[in-house]
Design a protein that fits this description.
The complex is a heterodimer of chains A (about 260) and B (about 240). Chain A is of the alpha/beta class and about 260 residues long. Chain A is built from 8 helices and 12 strands. Chain A has a single domain, classed as 3-Layer(aba) Sandwich (Rossmann fold), CATH 3.40.50.300. Chain A has a 6-stranded mixed sheet, sandwiched between helices. Chain A is globular. Chain A starts with a strand and ends in a 23-residue tail after the last helix. Chain B is α/β, with parallel strands linked by helices. Chain B has one domain. Chain B has a 6-stranded parallel beta barrel. Chain B has a 6-stranded parallel sheet with strand order 3-5-8-11-13-15, with helices on one face. In chain B, helix 2 runs antiparallel to helix 3. Chain B is globular and about 55 Å long. Classes of the chains: A alpha/beta (about 260), B alpha/beta (about 240). Chains A and B meet through helix 2, strand 7 and helix 3 of A and helix 1 and helix 2 of B. Chain A: It comes from Amphritea pacifica. Chain A: Keywords: ATP-binding, Nucleotide-binding. Chain A: This is Fe-S cluster assembly ATPase SufC. Chain A: Pfam families: ABC_tran (PF00005).
């Protein structure tokens, strides 16, 4: 489904990713782990097409097409979904309006008809019950004044409604208490299918207890330094990221600040 | 042929007697001139209201998307005790349009109340000014006003200006003024785009969210119309 070859990415002329190679097949779950500043979020943002991240080398194929030649909304319509580490507030635009607009814009790009309003609302409400999200959130401004936990749950609700092919979850577990984490994980598990793939970007092993990955990759200093099965996450939890290369321990930049307002 | 300017001058006067309530809503899309600022209507309008009786109410709602230049200050004289004046406005300027609009709320009676919500959106080289006067007379005891002026800037060649005048002659009056200036952030745009919403649709959605409090004051069929007009007027404003 996704094939990343020798990907290099710069931001503000600073090289963040230095030759990433990654193959993700349909039905698989891959976890990307690593310390702060290792480039995990950069990889997620680059795949989604954030304009601040400039690709300096390499190639990304998604379902056989050149992903990097598509703009952000084309990638979304092609089935790429990014659950944001910090979901953005859209004041005055209700959650339901935002969801409907997103779904219909994607359908329009794919040449599909707009969804019937009643079918849409029935589907959304059923998924909210599944995620145990209060229906009142539908009529509030998108993410406006939501708690950290509500924002993360809302991202997963969008995932379930939009039904993408490849979901990238950027630290969706950060800032969640244990109950919220279980709800989020259950939502993501409901999304899994043999046709879909999932990339989990995370610091911690705890999410992976509920969402067992097929492959775990360790990103450090812009490179994947180790790959393994689910057991690698446990090993990292016990030994830390830096047992092999203690000299490179010091995080060079801290773009990823843990969110603690869950 | 349409390089000349035309003048539109209208006078609207409202009088509300005891317990009467008047709501007056306008959606205006006169020809704004071309993208270089040639031609267009000069929309210089007088709108004023008198709450003559006790417990009367006058509410002005306006959506201004057209005209090369708009000067318009729908006003209310709150003469009757316990009378209420409201002004809800959305003004959008694109290309070289100018909108200078606001209200005058003159509190004369006791326990009079007024609410002002003004939303200005500027794009291109558009200029938007809110110009308003809240005046509380010496006999208008226990009067209250709340004003909120929000400006949204699209791009770096437009302007927003807020000129509130407040004159209070009674010690028991309560007058509040809030003003904000915002822009659509790159993060908001990226978030919308990542969900599949293209730039133009995202801007229209974010702008309508910004105007929501005022659109809610419009009659339903007007609100739909106003929303569609905003989208047309914003075409090509970002991108």
């Amino acid at each position: 489904m996704l094939s990343i070859r020798n990907l290099g990415v710069r931001i503000d002329n600073k090289l963040i990713l230095q030759g990433i190679n990654l193959e993700v097949a349909a039905g698989e779950v891959h976890a990307i782990m690593g310390p702060n500043g290792s480039g995990k979020s950069t990889l997620a943002q680059t795949l989604a097409g954030h304009p601040d991240y400039q690709v300096s080398q390499g190639q990304v194929l998604y379902q056989g097409q050149d992903l990097l030649s598509l703009n952000v909304e084309q990638r979304a319509a092609a089935g790429i979904f990014l659950a944001f580490q910090y979901p953005v507030e859209i004041p005055g635009v209700s959650n339901i309006q935002f969801l409907k607009s997103a779904l219909n814009c994607q359908r329009k790009q794919r040449g599909e008809p707009e969804l019937d309003a009643l079918d849409f609302i029935t589907d959304v409400k059923q998924k909210m019950r599944q995620m145990q999200i209060d229906e009142a959130l539908l009529y509030r401004g998108t993410n406006e004044g939501f708690s950290g936990g509500e924002k993360k749950s809302n991202e997963i609700l969008q995932l379930l409604v939009l039904q993408p092919q490849l979901a990238i979850l950027d630290e969706t577990d950060s800032g969640l208490d244990i109950d919220a984490l279980k709800r989020v994980a259950a939502g993501v598990n409901a999304f899994r299918s043999p046709e879909r793939a999932l990339i989990l970007v995370t610091h911690y092993q705890r999410l992976l207890q509920y969402l067992v990955p097929d492959r775990v990759h360790v990103l450090q200093n812009g490179r994947i330094i180790r790959s393994g099965g689910a057991e690698l996450a446990l090993e990292l939890e016990q030994q830390g990221y830096t047992t092999d290369t203690p000299s490179e321990d010091a995080p060079t930049q801290k773009r990823e600040v843990p969110d603690d307002n869950g | 042929m349409r390089d000349d300017n035309q003048l539109h001058a209208a006078v609207v006067e409202l009088v509300a007697l005891e317990n009467a309530e008047i709501k007056y809503a306008t959606v205006q899309n006169w020809y704004p001139g071309d993208q270089h600022g040639n031609g267009g209507i000069f929309n210089f309008v007088t709108k004023r209201g008198l709450c003559a009786g006790a417990h009367s109410k006058i509410s002005w709602t306006q959506v201004e998307t057209g005209s090369a230049i708009t000067w318009k200050y729908p006003s209310v004289i709150l003469k009757g005790d316990y009378s209420v004046g409201e002004f809800y406005s959305v003004a959008l300027t694109n290309n070289y349009q100018q909108a200078d609009t606001g209200t005058k709320m003159t509190h004369l009676g006791k326990h009079t109340r007024s609410t002002i919500i003004s939303k200005g959106i500027s794009a291109g080289h558009g200029q938007n000014s809110y110009r308003g006067l809240v005046k509380v007379g010496a006999k208008a005891s226990d009067s209250r006003n709340h004003s909120q002026c929000d400006s949204l800037l699209l791009g770096d060649t437009c302007g927003a200006h807020t000129l509130p005048y407040i004159e209070v002659s009674h010690p028991m009056a309560q007058v509040e003024h809030e003003a904000t200036t915002t822009k659509i952030s790159d993060d908001q745009l990226f978030y919308c785009q990542q969900r599949g919403i293209d730039t133009e649709a995202a801007v229209a959605m974010l702008v309508s969210g910004f105007c929501k409090e005022v659109f809610h004051k419009l009659p339903m069929e007007f609100a739909v119309e106003a929303q569609a007009l905003m989208e047309i007027s914003l075409e090509g404003a970002i991108g």
